[in-house]
Amino acid sequence: MPEYKAPLRDIKFVMTELLNSEQHYANLEGAEDASPDMIDAIIQEGAKFCEQVLSPLNQVGDREGCTLTDGSVKTPTGFREAYQQYIEGGWPSMTADVDHGGQGLPESVGLVMREMIGTANWSWGMYPGLSHGAINTLEQHGTGAQKETYLNPMVSGEWTGTMCLTEAHCGSDLGTLRSKAEPNADGSYSITGTKIFISAGEHDMADNIVHIVLARLPDAPAGTKGISLFIVPKILPAEDGSLGDKNAVSCGSLEHKMGIHGNATCVMNFDGARGWLIGPENRGLNCMFTFMNVARLGTAIQGLGAAELSFQGSLAYAKDRLAMRSLTGPKNPEGPADPIIVHPDVRRMLLTQKAVAEGARAMIYYTAQQGDIVLRGKTDEERHQADGLMSFLTPIAKAFLTEIGHEASNLGMQVFGGHGFISEWGMEQVVRDARIGTIYEGTTGIQALDLLGRKVLMSKGESLRGFTKQVHLFCKAHSDEPQMKQFIEPLQALNKEWADITTQVGMSAMKNREEVGSASFDYLMYSGYVVFAYLWARMAQVALEAMADGTSEETFYNAKVQTARFYFTRILPRTKGHAASMLAGADTLMDMPEEAFVF
User: Fold this and answer.
1) Over the Cα atoms of the chain, what is R_g?
2) In whole angstroms, what is the distance from residue 200 CA to residue 164 CA?
3) 133-182 pLDDT, tens per residue?
4) I need a surface site. Which of 75, 214, 477, 567 has the fewest CB within 10 A?
């Protein structure tokens, strides 16, 4: 398994040089304590925890997995102890409300920690990761009494949380879920039903688990308009806040999975369990989107983590592994062969991984800053603009980054050749762990429909224009700089083409709604590559400016410019294929009759 090292220099580059985090935090309400020194100290300490505690457990978790005995789940060796260190370090409370024991830091700061945790050990990171969304949901939609009961122990990390949506007959189509909620005389509800694929649904790492559950009230309307949201704790809290009786919630089985073996993915049975309504009746999905938006951006981190960890592993191997001679003559004349990093095709794979990992970091941090402004912006206009940008970027970040992150993990395995297929190196685990990212929290196809159908076409292009305007202003500001020409000209052309293609798809969809589903995947991938182009152009501009001003880090900044050039010449042309595919029309997909699908 690659030995994870937090990429602190690149994290600092994106935060402080690309996104000007110091000014960003100064512009937020209640973020006065987020000084550069404080943020740097937090990230440095977090890196130590991830490198020294979590990374060594990554392969342990994959090898051992979780075990279920009499309804109780035992996590892999070291997981529970690592979680106690996590609590003692105060990490769960970083971004939570100070009124409930939190530190009140902006969400984007916590996201940096989540990146390092997820890259070091994705399976372990899912246990506290699910709690984050549950806490946000309670903070925004819970009653005063619910917050008083649940938030303090969840913020401290003593209790963890889950999200219970999926049932055996319904995945993303939540309108067909069957779990029931019957009112009790005391104001609580009796929750009955079975949920599947519940990450961290049962484990031995915390004293209690608070399930956020979707269910239907009696006589609720059919479909998504008849779903309500409930708090259902594993152990019922007593009036004094201590733990009382066990609730009628149990883990029926553990799923046997391709990857993320260290995380307990559970079938959860609710057999008349006591629960309490969150938010208005039949508005559960609206409240759940608080959880889902957090979870989607959290899932985007998996794409980044897979690319980063596989890049670190394959880079070290490529510098050490000797095979064949360079086509331009020996580069290691004293040895029997040259290190494989001298070969162009290995460079292609390494540079792709590097471009994906660093581009993904920029995209996630940029999107997270929009989330900060939505929550803490000082004016309605700022909050509204940021909300539009975040809404537009979230499905792109979730789907695009998990798709290309998985591609990067496969390239990492490929760099190792036959050794990549052998478990002791750990590269195949990265591939297996990353594969789920394109599926959960809404598959790539679901995210693509959300982007093109809901976010772009239903807003009549307003959400797209909010982003393309920023791209236009950036290009205009740097169009006269000779060294930026190689980035600005293709970016300007794509920015215009993006709008034109959207109009064409929208016009086709007015005649045939199947055109939206037909074009959506390619539209999302195209959009992702263009967003990356904008961010890589910005990173190149920052690096060029730093070198022009004089720097002792010439190698670092020059690598940024060279990676940007690689991205624009070798990866960005993929947009041409996606453009052709999305404009090919729905007929090529829908004309074949169902009975013709035979084998």
Assistant:
1) 24
2) 10
3) 899 899 989 999 999 999 999 999 999 999 999 999 887 778 789 999 99
4) 477
Rounded CA separation 78/123 (Å): 13
- Residue 130's DSSP bridge partners are none
Q: How far is CA 33 from CA 378, 389, 403, 467, in A?
A: 16, 26, 36, 30
Assign 330 to helix, strand or coil: coil
Q: Quote the domain boundaries for residue 493.
A: 456-589
> Is 530 domain-assigned?
yes
Tokens 């195209």 correspond to: 526
User: Do the domain assignments include residue 351?
Assistant: no
441 flagged as catalytic: yes
Query: Domain count of the chain?
Result: 1
Crossing angle of helices 514-549 and 574-582, in 10° steps, is 160
Rounded to an integer, what distance in angstroms lies between the CA atom of residue 352 and that of residue 307? 9
Nearest residue to 95 via CA among 28, 143, 141, 142: 28
Is residue 510, in this structure, part of any structural domain at all?
yes
Q: How far apart are CA 535 and CA 299, in angstroms?
A: 20
Structure tokens that stand for 78 in this block: 């070291």
Helix, strand, or coil (residue 65) = coil
Q: Model confidence over 311-329: pLDDT tens digits?
A: 999 999 999 999 999 999 9
Q: Is residue 349 part of a domain?
A: no
The rounded distance, in Å, linking the Cα atoms of 379 and 387 is 12
- Judge whether residue 25 has pLDDT over 80: yes
Catalytic residue among 308, 358, 428, 441: 441
3-state secondary structure at position 272:
strand
Q: Which two tokens stand for residue 262?
A: 């260290």
Residue 470, CA atoms < 13 Å, CB-side half-sphere: 17
Are the CB atoms for 490 and 475 separated by under 8 Å? no
Which residue bears the tokens 């990492």? Answer: 412
The DSSP 8-state label assigned to residue 498 in this structure reads: H
Q: Tell me the residue length of the chain.
A: 599
- ∠ Cα 387 36 132 (to 5°): 45
Distance of CA 235 to the CA centre of its chain: 30
The 8-class DSSP code of residue 199 comes to E
DSSP H helical ranges for 50-96: 58-64, 79-88
User: Which alpha helices (DSSP H) does 121-252 contain, by range?
Assistant: 122-141, 144-156
Contact status, residue 412 vs residue 310, Cβ threshold 8 Å: yes
